[in-house]
Amino acid sequence: MISNVPRLMISAAGSNNGKTTVTSAILKAFTMKGKKLAAFKAGPDYIDPMFHSRVIKIPSRNLDKFMMGENNCRYVFDKNSRGMDISIIEGVMGYYDGIGTGTSCSSYELASILNCPVVLVINPSGMAASVGAIIEGFKNFKGKSNIKGVILNAVSNTMFEYYRKIIESNTGVRVYGYMPRLSDCKLESRHLGLVTAEEIGNLESIIEELGEEALKTIDLEGLYSLAVSAAPIEYEEPSINYIGKIKIAVAYDKAFCFYYEDNLDILAEMGAEVIKFSPIKDKVLPEDIGGLYIGGGYPELYIKELSGNKSMLDDIKAKVAAGLPTFAECGGYMYLMESFIDKNVDKDGKVYSLAGAIEGNSCMTGSLRRFGYITLTSRNDNLMCKAGELINGHEFHYSDSSNTGDSFLAVKPESDRSWKTIIADDTKFAGYPHINFMGNLKFAENFIKKSIEYYSGNR
């Protein structure tokens, strides 16, 4: 397959330079001009795609070489870009930041995989001619960088002209505009990054203001021309097999909202009907389901509501004990445990009872417990795979647990660090790691097969 979709990447010199704000502004401005857009996020982040999705009104997707592979990154990109006027990819961290000390799985590498022109977001505060040195360094650091332009962030119109002259006269890199400092459009942060889109009550007005500003200060026609210049990419379409019809209950509310859209798409393509429910508000699981999927999120922020919904907790515990195939990641895994201990109350902590489908408890800590990519190799036959099979994953959590499991061996890439993780048996797969089914379609196939088997045996 060949893709000729117009595309560009918005990246930055580092985190906290305003990539998500500028990306959202550009997405909104293009929609105001009547363009049809697709949006993507480089890497494993869940939160930034939520903002993209609120702007373009369709799901934003993750593109992650480590978790999906090069070919599948191209496939997911093209599949979700067909019929669009332009596709925008938001980078991750700094442009060259990858695994360990290298550039593997960086925005730079993804731009190369997708033959994608790149525009850097730069906040030049406190600099003069030095901003030219930074851009020149980024442009030439690794040979063909794909860096074709710059957008300045948090500058005035007067300073924009000052910096534009420095950059274009010294580097030859085109400046495609700027975003002024908009204090009322600031996106708040917390321990896993930005707060989720659903938590910002005035998000629509913020997006509207960002788009209006971008129409005035960013060269959208220039960006579109740059996107059209992208060279074609080739890929092979993966075989996603239809397994059979089955209903899968997916926890989806303010507490549980971290899902890769492709995981849900793959389940649907294999025959699953995704039935969303709220562990906060609903009293029991949806009827006639064959499987349960509880993703990550912020259960600690809604622990009173989750713990107080006894009928849902009792229903989940009973059905998981009866063999309901259950896939739970990070926050979902915490929810399945016996309790959550809130140590912000006192030194011993207030205990909130939870589902009790898994032994143990969890609590928040004052630091990041695990962060980064891992390769997961199964140590036993289980719901998702046979012993010895593997899938790449990712962890990012400030919580810790008294029972992290030992069904898989997690190994950090380019490192000798490893540990045991995940509670997995014939009907359960629960633990801190997040996985993307594009990395091993058999995991999704086995989940669907077990769900059909369970439902057929309990009709």
Can you walk through the features of this model?
It is built from 14 helices and 28 strands. By secondary structure, the chain is of the alpha/beta class. It has two domains: 233 residues, 3-Layer(aba) Sandwich (Rossmann fold); 212 residues, Rossmann fold (3-Layer(aba) Sandwich), CATH 3.40.50.880. A hairpin with a 3-residue loop joins strand 26 and strand 27. The chain is globular and about 70 Å long.
Total number of domains: 2
| CATH homologous superfamily identity of the largest domain | P-loop containing nucleotide triphosphate hydrolases
Any guess at the CATH architecture of the largest domain? Answer: 3-Layer(aba) Sandwich
- What's the total count of β strands? 28
Could you name the CATH topology of the largest domain? Rossmann fold
Q: What is the structural class?
A: alpha/beta
Strand order of the largest sheet: 4-3-5-2-6-7-8
Mean pLDDT: 93
- First-last Cα distance: 43 Å
Strand content: 25-35%
What kind of oligomer do you see? single chain
Mass-distribution shape: globular
CATH class of the largest domain: Alpha Beta
What is the overall number of helices? 14
Approximately how much helix is present in the residues? 25-40%
Q: Runs with pLDDT <50, length 5+?
A: 189-194
- Please tell me how large the radius of gyration is: 23 Å
- Summarize the main sheet: 7 strands, parallel
